Amino acid sequence: SQQGEEDPQALSIQEGENATMNCSYKTSINNLQWYRQNSGRGLVHLILIRSNEREKHSGRLRVTLDTSKKSSSLLITASRAADTASYFCATDAVRIKAAGNKLTFGGGTRVLVKP
Amino acid sequence: DTEVTQTPKHLVMGMTNKKSLKCEQHMGHRAMYWYKQKAKKPPELMFVYSYEKLSINESVPSRFSPECPNSSLLNLHLHALQPEDSALYLCASSQGLRGSNQPQHFGDGTRLSIL
Q: How far apart are CA A94 and CA B95, in angstroms?
């Protein structure tokens, strides 16, 4: 079952505009991660925010985390046509005894940036 | 180019065939993962390997058989698959530091079609 639910499911904007997408989850988390997936490609890690952090920036990306509301948002500023992709949030909620981590992905937001 | 390499990129097989998917990483990561992704859906975790040992099997049917011959390689052996197994199969790796927050690095996947 999906831990994270994202909205909107799809977003269409003009180049230069900002894009905001939201992720909600159900259980306590260790961290929340955002990934981008271009059509026909694998996922690319964008940003990781820990459960004790509230906001994080990376270039044109801004991620917020509200653990009281169990929600996160990803903001892409000054969007470019190259930002056209699907964006997924993923929660790392379970500490596994072995090395590695178990991610549960949200349904994703498909973003189209029109030139 | 991604640092996780998956071969083949595309695979078409009949329901009685036996084939293998391969994944390779040279980042020294000690955790490796297999995911299944259907069109317009998020990736779903199948298996986690930690230090070459299977640590998580998400109740995957036995017609999928994972193998980790060494710390750099991960295979997924396929036998007697069903048409509903057609999907993009993604391999990922992460550092594998126990209990730490870590991103996963994904390959571009193998697109599998079952006839």
A: 17
